[in-house]
Q: What sequence folds into this?
């Protein structure tokens, strides 16, 4: 029981600190990193019961569900064709990357596909785990992607806006 309390406490502290200091990915990334590092140093790690995992998945689903609003209905319909095209392109790249990773013997195809696929880190990691793949590895791949995007995207936006203001685009 002490192990659970320790990782919960460390996760809460890590999440709050990451949120406070604007770490890319915020509370989720901070909680995951701090909890993950703590578990790595515990002699026997920590294993969550399936019912606890299910409860966490339900809470995450509720959190995402309540974030939706009516503006999604009109905007969502307008952008749907581009969203579908984007998903097809990203999935094609993900399949190619997963195939390459599995052929190189780095990781099994299923885990690699969950890791390289577009989607949220928590959702894809939980889905991978529920399908008996390596959820922590999937979370790691998404963490790398998120950190990279959180650094690169603001720079790209600033660069494009600057070029637009100068009349180059």
A:
């Amino acid at each position: 029981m002490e192990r659970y309390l320790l990782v919960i406490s460390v996760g809460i502290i890590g999440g709050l600190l990451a949120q406070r200091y604007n770490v890319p990915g915020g509370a989720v990334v901070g909680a995951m990193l701090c909890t993950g590092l703590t578990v790595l140093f515990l002699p026997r790690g920590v294993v969550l019961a399936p019912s606890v995992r299910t409860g966490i998945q339900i809470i995450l689903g509720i959190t995402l569900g309540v974030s939706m609003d009516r503006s999604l209905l009109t905007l969502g319909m307008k952008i749907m064709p581009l969203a579908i095209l984007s998903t097809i392109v990203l999935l094609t790249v993900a399949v190619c990357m997963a195939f390459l990773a599995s052929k190189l013997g780095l990781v099994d195809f299923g885990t690699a596909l969950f890791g390289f696929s577009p989607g949220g880190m928590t959702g894809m990691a939980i889905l991978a785990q529920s399908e008996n793949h390596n959820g922590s590895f999937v979370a790691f791949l998404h963490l790398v992607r998120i950190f990279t995007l959180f650094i690169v995207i603001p720079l790209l936006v600033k660069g494009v806006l600057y070029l637009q203001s100068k009349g180059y685009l």
